[in-house]
Automatic annotation (TrEMBL):
Family recorded in the similarity comment: Belongs to the short-chain dehydrogenases/reductases (SDR) family.
Keywords for the protein's UniProt record, in alphabetical order: Oxidoreductase
Keyword Protein biosynthesis set for record: no
Protein's recorded name: 2-dehydro-3-deoxy-D-gluconate 5-dehydrogenase KduD
Domain Ketoreductase: 11-213
Superkingdom, taxonomy of origin: Bacteria
Pfam family, one: adh_short_C2
Length: 254
């Protein structure tokens, strides 16, 4: 039955940045679909742990700051998950940061911080996950891209560069790994109401300009992304490779 192919029972997922915002919604949804969920991040994921546990799934917290972790430390983090939860079937590279400043004033520190979290960590975690998944001939990697994977954005050059690169990396890994049973895809969220976009929503003119450009007529909610994530994490997406799935209220169609 097709709906059974969306189930994630017995799978192990690793979600980065799962303590709040989109990551919390995705971690909860994966657990609702049946997966055990490891949470990798630097903040307190207690709220998400409670949600996953309430669903009867196992959780594991891996404390890691993606801005400073070395590639070896990220590989160790993946190994901690496989050792404690018995494997790794799904990696969601969700954690992200943003620095808003005009390009001419964008500091090298801001550039480095954003690229480390939003791009470098995505590669190093995907590589470590791939090394576990490829010999088993199965696995799902979901990267969280952005509208700024397609557009230049306003005053966020490091974020835009990283999110464009995430799409390129998604396709590059998919090219290599599709034939080996590992699906690598991305979700490109539109404008979602989280802490990431709080400054935009606090600016009355900017908030209205964004909302009026969204065909759906409203900002997205983190839960709007959960169906796409469960789909890409599941057997239902077994022939989907290198795709970038916009969940954007129609923003890109405009
Ligand atoms: P958010 O509420 O600001 O959450 C960001 C998450 O990333 C938090 O869990 C945060 O952990 C984590 N993170 C940031 N820096 C980290 C670091 N150095 N080490 C470990 N974890 C770190 O933002 P969000 O909107 O949910 O964003 C989630 C993803 O969606 C990001 O990749 C973002 O770029 C992407 N996205 C968001 C939107 C949107 O409209 N909101 C649109 C497109 C794409 P802490 O709590 O410890 O800071």
């Amino acid at each position: 039955m097709v709906l059974d192919s969306f189930r994630l029972d017995g799978r192990v997922a690793l979600v980065t940045g799962g303590n709040r915002g989109i990551g919390q919604a995705l971690a909860t949804a994966l657990a609702q679909a049946g997966a055990d969920v490891a949470l990798l991040g630097r903040g307190d994921p207690g709220g998400t742990v409670a949600r996953v546990a309430a669903l009867g799934r196992r959780t594991l917290v891996v404390h890691t700051d993606l801005a400073t972790a070395t590639p070896n430390e990220l590989a160790d983090a993946v190994a901690t998950v496989t050792a404690n939860l018995g494997g790794l079937d799904i990696l969601v590279n969700n954690a992200g940061t943003i620095r808003r400043a005009d390009a001419a004033d964008h500091s090298p520190d801001d550039w480095d911080a954003v690229l480390r979290v939003n791009l470098d960590a995505v590669f190093h975690l995907s590589r470590a996950a791939g090394r576990h998944m490829l010999p088993r001939g199965a696995g799902k990697i979901i990267n969280i891209a952005s509208m700024l994977s397609f557009q230049g954005g306003i005053r966020v050059p490091s974020y835009t560069a990283a999110k464009h690169a995430v799409v390129g990396l998604t396709r590059a890994l998919a090219n290599e790994w599709a034939a080996r049973g590992v699906n690598v895809n991305a979700i490109a969220p539109g404008y979602i109401a989280t802490d990431n976009t709080a400054p935009l929503r606090a600016d009355v003119d900017r908030e209205r300009a964004i909302r009026e450009r969204i065909p759906a007529g409203r900002w997205g909610d983190p839960d709007d992304l959960t169906g796409a994530a469960v789909f890409l994490a599941s057997d239902a997406a077994r022939y989907v490779h290198g795709a970038v799935l916009p969940v954007d209220g129609g923003w890109l169609a405009r």
